[in-house]
User: What shape does this take?
Amino acid sequence: MGSQYTPTMAKIIRKLPAKSRTKTSSLAAKSGQAKKPKTSKALTAKTVKLKPWNAAEVHEAFARFRKANPEPKGELEHLNPYTLLVAVVLSAQATDAGVNKATRALFAIADTPQKMLDLGEEEVRNYIKTIGLYRTKARNVIALSEKLIAEFGGVVPRTRAELETLPGAGRKTANVVLNMAFGEHTMAVDTHVFRVGNRTNLAPGKTPLEVELGLERVIPDEFMMHAHHWLILHGRYTCLARKPRCEVCIINDLCRWPEKTI
Ligand code: SF4
Assistant: This one.
């Protein structure tokens, strides 16, 4: 979920002055951070003691994200809170692009729980069969639509606890819906946010929940509305899993990753 970096954003990519780089490296060397584990997997706060971020650094990082992309948008296509909920449920272990390809036609004829029930599980399955785990997901879409009608008057609930009772919806789904549909300052942690939180040492954690709570703790409220998207975009397009693009990263001077390539 989120928009791609634009050419305008590329223009403002920040080049770190050589002086700062030298300083960062020498500090890292002094504290033993320069020691490189053999694999990226080993690079967590668990194996290397990394310096925590201070409040000014966190503010600076998010001010840069905001400047680069003031209004980040999710990449999952949807028409209303209900279709957003369905899209997020379908996006588990699938790409946003793949989900969008399937849901464009589906949402054109079923954008409410009742219309989805009228369509029926078999037809839903046909629409989404290009998405992984489509049989289970079709079953969940029908079941969550039934539950929305039976228990919530056909309306998507606005609390995490209620959202989490819906079939196929976990904490991450609830956080995405609360943030994107209802403007809550929640932090949904997907694979990208989890990686960025740990690598940068902004909010290290062994589980998505630990990272979520850590990010909520350190990110100033003024940035929380969009922080989820900024971090997803950062992980998706810059801090890539296998080969992070540290040379064009706008927070490369702040990042604590010992293996950053700058
Ligand atoms: S410097 Fe590299 S590792 Fe650190 S956040 Fe940027 S891209 Fe990721």
The chain is about 55% helix and 0% strand. The CA atoms of residues 187 and 213 lie 8 Å apart. Confidence is low (pLDDT under 50) at residues 1-45. The longest helix spans residues 134-152.
